[in-house]
Design goal:
PP2-like/Lectin; mainly beta; PP2-like; Phloem protein 2; 59% strand; five-stranded antiparallel sheet; carbohydrate binding
Length: 145
């Protein structure tokens, strides 16, 4: 898992995004990023582990909407860029998603090519419409599906 601190978030640590810590399980504190008022522009980058060509992988963002979240009328864009130049793009509407509970946004699925190494980039953004607030980002996960 790539936690929120390791993601590139436009305008983080200003009045637009805040970082917060909370206890999730036991004594472990998790740092998250919370959107206060801004557009959405988050980017993650992971180096592929030694991939197995028979395994399908997925990348997801783990997020939560607060009770008062707003500005989510337009769908957000999720883009996955793979080491060989392949790109996947999808749109997801957050308007009807549950509030105050973690859920996953699937950025994309892929099967690595034999011996393929390099960086996998995964973006989450939406610059149109109203400014957004109330999105909490825990991080991104690359895992076998």
């Amino acid at each position: 898992m790539l936690y929120a601190r390791s993601l590139y978030i436009t305008w983080v640590n200003r009045e637009y995004w805040t970082r917060d810590c909370f206890g999730e399980t036991g004594d472990e504190n998790i740092e998250v990023a919370k959107l206060s008022q801004c557009w959405l522009d988050v980017r993650g980058k992971l180096t592929m582990p030694d991939p197995s060509p028979e395994v399908e992988y997925e990348i997801v963002y783990v997020v939560k909407l607060t009770k008062g979240a707003s500005g989510w009328e337009l769908p957000i864009r999720l883009i996955l860029s793979l080491p060989d130049g392949r790109v996947q793009e999808r749109q997801v509407c957050l308007l009807g998603k549950p509030r105050k509970q973690w859920f996953e946004l699937n950025v994309g699925n892929f099967q690595s090519k034999d011996g393929e190494l390099g960086e996998v980039c995964f973006d989450l953004f939406e610059h149109g419409g109203n400014w957004k607030n109330g999105l909490i980002i825990k991080g991104g996960i690359l895992r076998p599906k």
